Please model this.
Amino acid sequence: MDSIKVFAPATVANVACGFDIFGFAVDAPGDEVIISKRDDSKIVITKISGEDGKLTLDPQKNAVTVPVITYLKKLGLAQGFNVELHKKMPLGSGLGSSSASSVAGVFAVNELLGRPVPVKDLLPYAMEGERIACGAAHADNVAPALMGGFVVIRSYSPLDFFNVPTPQELFVTIVHPDIEVNTKDARYILRNEVSMKNTIAQMGNVAGMIAGLMQSDYDLIARSMVDFIIEPVRSILIPEFWEVKNAALEAGALGCSISGAGPSVFAFSRGQETAEKVSMAMKTAFEKASIHCNAYVSGVNTQGPKVLN
Ligand code: HSE
Model:
């Protein structure tokens, strides 16, 4: 095989109470890459679509190729590749856009080479794409994009992460308002100190969320979807955030918070029908303030990246 087409999914990071440690993958949207072997050792980005020319074609600076270059260097391989990237989701959206590209790229190359590295072990390479894109190699988008499902990053040093099963009827609504929030900026505004009171409250919710997911206890999931640390600060970057959140809760959502660094807002619901109702309610709340938005409803995607050809 000389060429491969791969899809990697969007992800919701933080999931209310789990800043930098929780994330899960969705069915759509996602990014696609087409990667072909070259006769030389060069890594060349031949085409990028779907991002209005905002991303660089420089392979040393693009989130799709940096993981590939790091991976090839580590394996001591001199094989070159042409890389086509098709962005199927907005940049700076809080949907893990750069992570989807990073995972798609390194997953595709690994498959093309006959999978010399187990998929799980591709995570450190994919994280290098995140470092290039937003200055911090956090894994709560890349890990679920790579592994599928709901992922917990237990430790960054050493890197230790695991999947948590999710209930069958758990659906997510993601609404992306037509504004851009730069992840670097959204991290910069966070405080470095957290009070003991908020730490205790947040730890309770983190534990509650994991237990709720594992036991399919929807009420426990709902009670645990409270973020005492990040949401109060970052919500100022999202116009109408509180109106949208209230609309989601009134429409029957289990909980609602910021997706990743925002501006997308996500809600969990029990059942697809409720998630669709929640989607309408959240959209209406944004649109009342003349903010155009796109909405997605999905189950939790347990597969992660997939080969399309
Ligand atoms: N955990 C990261 C953050 C996710 O909230 O900054 C960014 O998508």
Remarks:
- The radius of gyration is 19 Å.
- The chain has two domains: 3-164, 170-299.
- Residues 129 and 229 are 26 Å apart (CA to CA).
- The longest strand covers residues 22-37.
